[in-house]
Amino acid sequence: MAGHTRNSIVIDAPMDLVWERTNDVASWTELFSEYSVAEILEQDGSTVTFRLALHPDENDKVWSWVSQRTTDVATRTVRAHRVETGPFEYMNIHWEYTQTDEGVRMQWTQDFHMKDGAPLDDEGMTDRINRNSLVQMNLIKSKIEAAAHAQRTPFADLAGKRILVTGGSRGIGRGIVLAAARSGADVVTCYRQENDYVTSLGKELASLPGTQHVLQADASEASGARLLAQQAQKLLGGLDAVINNAGDFTPTPYPELTDAAWATALQSNLTGPHQVTQAMLPLLGKGASIVNIGSTVARIGMASGAHYTAVKQALVGLTRSLARELGPQGIRVNTVSPGRIATEALDELPPEAAAQQRAVFSKFTALGRLGAPQEIADVVLFLISDQASYITGQNIHVDGCV
User: Fold this and answer.
1) How is residue 55 annotated by DSSP?
2) Is the pLDDT of residue 358 over 90?
3) Mean pLDDT for the chain?
4) Sequence-ordered list of residues with C-beta below 8 angstroms from that of 51, at least 6 positions apart, any chain
5) Strand pairing partners for 194?
6) How distant, in Å, are the alpha carbons of 96, 254, 256, 264 from that of 261?
7) Buried/exposed code over 256-273 (b: 16+ C-beta within 10 A; e: otherwise)
8) Which pairs count as long-range contacts for 73-79, CB under 8 Å and 24+ apart, including other chains?
9) With 80 as the cut, is the pLDDT of residue 204 above it?
10) How many helices (H) and strands (E) does the chain have?
11) β-strands 162-165, 186-191 pairing
12) Shortest CA distance to 347 belongs to which of 8, 29, 6, 22?
């Protein structure tokens, strides 16, 4: 008996982009959520030999192996196999890319056979591969479609604009930073602690136009706000837009909500944006814009989130009042309230848990899916662009209609 799987997904993006992104093995740690290492060992024409390593499993064991793949751009196919087979007698993979009316259909066909004594037999591995392929393909689809969308909808009038984005190393903030940079803006962003996301953000920004600065600063503290203001003045000479994205949320049932947890939610999600905005005001002139990132749950409510929804609703009030107060100076202030967005926080979950969350939260939306960071970024970039010059004091929900 042997194992055989066939899985496919349609990606709404140009063929060249899908082909390039999915065959850039060195960047697979950013494209797939399962790999911690993707190391090129040898390149010989269209054939590449490389080592992959998974993230540690529940027993803290790291699975690693060497594979080889050969691409054929003329037929848009890839043949791959494991050189170090590990628990497999053999593992062969065939990638196929087909242009359809809806986009590029990417198909993975895997043929394999497990060794005697392997942790899983052929049937068990077939089930695991099918489940994991669904998760990884949806992740790849989301990332490549976001990249394609960014290429199709540039905000040309943002070129040279000076923008501050708090909390820009991950999630929605990262999407805003990258989208602004692609549009040619000069960006300052911040992070609280050093991590792999900060490193990878720097690498992505390096190839984009404009000038970008990734700084360590805690935007929830007054000292961090002052530091960001000083650096924005020093590095950019002022600001044209401030995006208050940094925030924090820990689900807590209301009976268990401590004063400390309430205070943390207030500081991170309301006091922090207030302090950042106040510190940046001297750097903003006529035509400048402030966007506060809220949450659609402030409108609909959320169990175990009373502290979070309360401060996010207060942020809407802050936005409205500042819009009235700063309007005579030519400064616009708006809120963007995202719904459930598929960020790397979802990717970090075990494949089964990630797939379950996608399915559950997708049912809450009229569009039947989660949002992408790029879709939030598009609205934010619109609001800080000249195209939104008469929009202020608004709370725009980007939630797929929940």
Assistant:
1) P
2) no
3) 94
4) 37, 38, 39, 41, 64, 65, 66, 67
5) none
6) 50, 11, 9, 5
7) ebeeeeeebbbbbbbbbb
8) 73/19, 73/46, 76/15, 76/19, 78/23
9) yes
10) 13, 14
11) parallel
12) 29
Is 308 tagged catalytic? yes
Residues 239-298: tens digit of each pLDDT: 999 999 999 999 999 999 999 999 999 999 999 999 999 999 999 999 999 999 999 999
Determine the Cα angle at 321 with ends 315 and 325, to 5°.
Answer: 140
From the list 97, 197, 254, 308, the catalytic residue is: 308
- Percent of the chain at pLDDT > 90 equals 86
What's 274's DSSP letter? H
51 has a pLDDT exceeding 70: yes
Show the tokens assigned to 227.
């530091």
Among the listed ranges 140-154, 315-329, 381-395, which one has the minimum average pLDDT value? 140-154
Instruction: Locate 232 and state its tokens.
Output: 């924005």
Helices 351-362 and 122-152 pack at an angle, to 10 degrees, of 50
Average pLDDT value for residue range 45-52: 95
Q: Is residue 184 a contact partner of residue 210, using CB atoms and an 8 Å limit? A: yes
Nearest CA-CA partner of 3 in 109, 150, 125: 125
Containing H/E element for 7? strand 3-11
Find out whether 321 and 273 touch, Cβ atoms under 8 Å.
no
The whole-angstrom separation of Cα 240 and Cα 226 is 17
- Containing 375, the helix (H) or strand (E) segment is helix 373-384
For the segment 81-106, what is each residue's pLDDT rounded down to a tens digit? 999 999 999 999 999 999 999 999 99
Model confidence, pTM: 0.72
